Amino acid sequence: MALRPVQVNIKALDAAAVGRFWAEALGWSAHSPGVTTYVGPVGGLVWPDPVAVGVDVVPVPEPGTTTKNRVHLDLATTSAAHQRELVARLKALGATPAHVGQGEVPWTVLADPEGNEFCVLEPREIYRDTGPIAAVVVDCADPRAMARFWGEAVDWPLREVTDDHAALRSAKGVGPYLEFLRTPGVKTVPDRVHLDLLPYPGDDKAAEVARLRSLGATDLDLGQGDVPWTCLADPEGHEFCVLAPS
Question: Where is the VOC domain (predicted)?
């Protein structure tokens, strides 16, 4: 039994506008079948996408805080020129420079139009075939412990683990990485960004949720009420949802 990461959930006051930003940023398309705006690869709506991890922008009434999200996206580039061009294009779309204590680094830290941080990486060979999203990055205190939990939670095998960094990726070697980065500080407020997981066809959602609880996940009440998905937190308090198969 295992789950698969299918989308990054981003909360926004104006979900349609933030969805359009991310569609333009990633070179994907935006689709609003209801209250949320789903962003995925061009070529027709396929959900879950067999390769990519999509972005689902969900409207909420509360603005974000000034506290840095502990989950963010890293975007891939293919050359120094591509990195410069992408940063310039993103700023033209409404992204702004973000300062999260990064100092002098070869990547560029930006925020989307509602302040959600993300990074535009310098070209790295490891991300040459990920698509526009190189990695979903989670700040944490203990990458090894996070790798153990998430390695059991999802069907992505561990690709690297040290005291400071851990990375998982699809067993098929496609799509983005899921990375855990040792970062100072602790989680203090709910994130505006989290992962959504989905059972495989034929798997039982309730059994998967029970399995996650046995691994150390805890139930999370965000005021979601009676919904078909289940909100949980990992052992360090990062929110995530287990979706119902559709």
Answer: 132-245
- The 230-233 sheet, strands edge to edge: 29-31, 37-40, 54-59, 3-12, 193-199, 239-242, 230-233, 218-219
**If you count DSSP H runs as helices and E runs as strands, how many of each does the chain have, helices first?**
4, 16
- Write the pLDDT tens digit of every residue in 98-140: 999 888 999 999 999 999 999 999 999 999 999 999 999 999 9
103, two tokens = 């100092």
Work out the burial of residue 216: count CB atoms within 10 Å of its CB; fewer than 13 is exposed, 13-18 middle, 19 or more buried.
middle
**Kind and range of the H or E element at 80?**
helix 80-93
Confidence band of 180 (pLDDT split at 50, 70, 90): very high
**Mind listing the pLDDT tens digit for each residue in 85-98?**
999 999 999 999 99
pTM value?
A: 0.96
Strands 193-199 and 239-242, by their bridges, are parallel
Residues 50, 62: Cα–Cα separation, whole Å: 33
